[in-house]
Amino acid sequence: MANLKDIRKRIGSVKNTQKITRAMKMVAAAKLRKAQQNMLDLRPYAIKTMDVLSGVAARAGEDEDIHPLLARRKAKHVMLVVLTSDRGLAGAFNANINKAAFKFWKELEADGKKVTFAVIGTKGRDYLKRRDADIQKDFSGVFQDLSMDRAGEIGRYIVDAYGRHDLDSVYLIYNEFKSAISQDLVIEPLLPITPMEVA
Q1: Is residue 196 part of a domain?
Q2: What sign has the CA pseudo-torsion 71, 47, 87, 130?
């Protein structure tokens, strides 16, 4: 049986662990708040940019010279850009994206389309590798030093491949942030830019 001194020592260890855990929780909460605020601040710009691009696409006439990003062609080769995290312990966050990507992949293949992938995040990469997916580009680790340059690198890769006619359409698969515990799964056509309804 443990003596009184050992019990006090264990109690002290537990209290120290609780203090460290509380401090880590506070740091994580502060980082989450900052990331949420940055994302929420940028969301209106992203939405407006897509609205403007969709408006331009809607007004582009059939007989005009159409920019390659607006040009529609028969979709024989589709790229799925799968956006997951680099780490686990995120509940169903990654699993939902991976399952949706797999299901969409198989639907496209059943429709006779060639499907390739660009992955952002190790969880998506590892999931798709285990299923023998054709991963053309791996942007894992991008979250370690996320910047406009890194985002530009990803965008340039996709736009260049589409412009060279290596791809006929591109879809982005991700979770749209609602709150820390709620996200909506999104499969969004990225290229060609889709026209919005013009009133």
Answers
A1: no
A2: negative
The contacts of residue 22 (CB under 8 Å, 6+ apart) are: none
Asked if residue 70 is part of any domain, the answer here is yes
The residue among 128, 144, 20, 34 whose CA lies nearest residue 82 is: 128
d(Cα 122, Cα 95) in Å, to the nearest integer? Answer: 12
Q: Is the pLDDT score of 61 beyond 60?
A: no
Q: pTM above the 0.85 mark? A: no
CA 179 to chain centre: 16
| Residues 189, 191, 194: CA angle, nearest 5 degrees | 70
Do 52 and 75 have their domain in common?
no
Residues 6+ apart with CB under 8 A from 116: 77, 78, 79, 80, 134, 135, 136, 167
Question: Do both 9 and 31 map to the same domain?
Answer: yes
CA distance 47 to 40: 11
Residue 167 phi, psi dihedral angles, 5° rounding: -130, 150
For residue range 118-163, list pLDDT tens digits in order: 998 888 888 899 998 888 888 887 777 777 788 888 888 888 888 8
Q: Do residues 167 and 73 lie in contact, with contact meaning Cβ atoms separated by under 8 Å?
A: no
- Could you say which DSSP state residue 48 is in? H
Q: Domain containing 103: what range? A: 66-191
